[in-house]
Write a structure and sequence with these properties.
Among the domains are: 65 residues, no CATH class; 64 residues. It has nine helices and no strands.
Length: 232
């Protein structure tokens, strides 16, 4: 079935109706639909190129159909339990987290004590354990893995890219108005030390070609630097 779908998708004029040709001199023959297997080179019989990701998705789906008992069980469990349990589970979990944050004195205090960071880390760890124990099935990762999967090409950045960027930065600092940069950074510091809206001050500094590092240094001089509490 999936091969027939791929063949239909690959056909450039699959949706265009064709006029039937009838030869009255020959007896009517029973027509049979032909199904062609997926081409290894992601190319259909008519020469149309298929997207490799679409081929993999259809292949994974076809492999999943070979395990109907698993698919059926997952669907049955979801339809039976999810509509009733998910809202209650989420509401209880959210209420618990909000109560904990309130007892800590608010979100800022909770962040400083590492509560949300710890919750995220523990959730990610539990999820990964479930994947490794195959309690959670991820197609192409811990089940239905293709033996002929091509490795993902790694993008390597040549060191010359950094040298070129440093040269551009040096040229920028040489040609910009240094006095304007200093004035906008001083204004940013003064605004950060008070209650002013720093966004317009940041925009002024950008227009004077102050760098991101220079603007961060100006704010760091006033507010200091946040150091996250280790949670591991």
């Amino acid at each position: 079935m999936l091969q027939a779908v791929v063949r239909k998708w690959a056909s450039p004029d699959a949706s265009a109706p064709k006029a039937a040709h009838h030869d009255s001199s020959r007896p009517a023959e029973k027509s049979e639909a032909t199904v062609e297997p997926l081409q290894p080179a992601s190319t259909a019989s008519n020469g149309s190129t298929l997207d490799p990701s679409a081929i993999r998705a259809l292949r994974d789906l076809e492999q999943g159909q070979q395990r109907p008992e698993l698919i059926s069980r997952l669907i049955d469990e979801f339809l039976e339990h999810a509509p009733r349990q998910l809202p209650a589970i989420r509401s209880a979990a959210h209420a618990r987290d909000f109560d904990t944050i309130d007892r800590m004195g608010g979100m800022v205090e909770a962040i400083e004590r590492g509560f949300p960071q710890r919750e995220v880390a523990e959730s990610a760890y539990s999820f990964q354990q479930a994947v490794e124990r195959r309690e959670k099935i991820i197609v192409g990762v811990n089940d239905f893995v293709a033996a002929d999967e091509e490795p993902i090409e790694i993008l390597y950045i040549d060191e010359s890219a950094g040298e070129q960027q440093l040269a551009k930065l040096a040229e920028l600092k040489r040609t910009r108005d240094t006095g304007a940069v200093r004035r906008t950074l001083d204004a940013l510091k003064a605004g950060a030390a008070g209650s002013a809206n720093t966004m317009p001050l940041l925009i002024d500094a950008v227009r004077a070609y102050a760098t991101v590092g220079e603007m961060c240094d100006a704010l760091r001089d006033v507010w200091g630097e946040y150091e996250e509490t280790p949670i591991i």
